[in-house]
Structures are given as C-alpha cells and as structure tokens.
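Hey,
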Amino acid sequence: MSVLSLGGTIAMTSAGPDAAGVVPTLDAPALLAALPGLTALNCKITSRSIRSLPGASLDFDDLSELVSVVRHELDSGADGVVITQGTDTIEETAYFLDLTVDRAAPVVVTGALRNPTLAGADGPANLLAAIQVAASRQLSGVGCLVVMSDEIHAARHVHKMHSTSPGAFGSPDAGPVGRVVEGIPRLFARPVAAPTYPVPTRAVRIGLVTACLGDDGELLHRLMTGFDGVVVAAFGAGHVPATFVAPLAELASRIPVVLASRTGAGPVLRATYGFPGSESDLQDRGLINSGFLGPYKARILLHVLLAAGAAHQQIVAAFDAAGTCGSHSPHNLPYRCDTGGGRAINASAG
C-alpha cells in the first residue's frame, strides 16, 4: 500500500506562534504516524510526499507528475494507492486520475475539512478509511474513488457540496457507491471504470464561463483568442442569456465549446426547450452536451481530450459516454476498452 501526500487541510498546522492561520506542514510519514489502527490492517504501507500545497494551488503539472508516481507505485507492487490533498480540488484531482491512471488496482483520494489543530479533526478517520478501501480487492477495476466520512464515492459523480462541513462530499446524481463499516468497505453498487487517456504532455487552455442573470456576454468575446476550448456553466438544464448566443456560436465554430449545468446536479437536456439560448438551440449551433457531467469535470475531460489531440467528433463521443449514467463507451477514440472487467486501458499509454 502506498500513501502519497499533496498537502491540504489534512496536513495543516500553525506555522508559528505569530502565524495568522494554518498552512501545510505535515508530510506523508507524519500523517501516518498520527493514525491509530494501522497494525490491524496487516499490510505494508509506504509513504511519500509529492507536494505540500493547499488544494487551490495544485495545477495540471502537479497532477501529471502524480499520475506518473501512482503508476510507478502500482507497477512496483503496491496493491493500492491513497492520495491525501486539499478538499478544494479533490473532485477535479480524482476525475483526472480516473481518466489517466490505466491500472486496475484501487486509487483513492481523501482529505479533511478540519485541520489537526481543531477538536474533532476528521483527517485521521478519513485517511484510515481510505487505506481500508484501497486495501480491498473488491475495489479493483472500478476507477478512482473518493473516501470521506466513511462514504465511498466514484470520482465521476462526487462533488464538494459544503465549504466547511465534514460531510461536505456527496454524489447528488448517483449517491455513494459504498460505505466503510467497522473497517470493511461495503459496496452498494460497483462503479463502471471510465475509459483512460494519455497523461497530458502539452499545455492547453480551457476557459470556464458561468451564466448569470443580466450578463451581456462580453467575457465570451475575450475568449476568441488564446483558448483551446471553453466550458459554459449554464442555467438549469442548459440555458444561457440571449446575449450569449451569438458569441457562443462564433466560439463553437472555432474551438470545442461544452455546455454544462451550473446547478450541481441533474443533466443538460437535449430537446425540451426551443428558445434562443436553450439547450437545443445551442446544440444546433455546435455546442457539445455534457449530460450529467458538471462544469468542473467537463473542463478536466476537455483538457485531457484536447491534450491527447482528439478530433471534434471524438470529443463529442467522449462527452456522450461520460455524461450518461450508463456503462457504454464511445467508439473511435484513442483508447481501447478492457472487456474483462479491469480498467479501460489506453492503447498508447505506458
């Protein structure tokens, strides 16, 4: 078992008597040293600190290095990998790992909402539960998971839903796939592993624009140059102000533009509304429907696809698959699917 640390609240303590607040100070060995119950697991645990950053400061270069380390740990014999990091970006890190770690062994991400200096700090319990999940063979081949408050969530569905509550994480469209009970992972449903893609090796820039009441769409005009793709976090089921329509159509004629919902749950519809700026109108103008995939994860998927050199129809097919709750996979994409129950393995990945 390998535990990798990126920093975050779970690793934060005071930097000194005059410090204004907590900062990342604890490394991976220190996190394990404070953890009760490890001896009962009967498995060898190694630890390594990759970064010591707040979750908000992580970037794609950090995540690409993390994927390389995770692959190395699994290829070197680890039965599973646990990553600790700041909760601000857990859902994005987990989905990036889901799309790029082409290995069957469990990969689990966890963190904390209460730092170690507070009463009721949740980091130790979350880390122990994450290790218990990663050590379970029944979680092989299901993709990346997030474990918080003893709940097991699929990376594709999990969402941070509260800024401070220890119960901040949920999967509003699907619910948790399981729970840790008396140290044993109990599955309610078995997640379907996502197709995997190459780890990005070239920089791409994806814009994220949120629709809001009275917006004149001026920001969209600023995206006409310098961006490789755009995600729109639209109202409700995929609607934008009428002022958005012309610039979005122009953007979609140049670069991929993905239509997602800002609501936090529920899908973008396809053919219910017909007014200018409705989901069907925007699709007719070339926007790509993200289905149940929210804007933050849509940005991660579009980033990975564009960095892999996917063509427009391949991007459409990937979002058709990722945005549904079914288990089908798109065709003609740069990966192959392992139909034997393991992870979908990228044909060009190492």
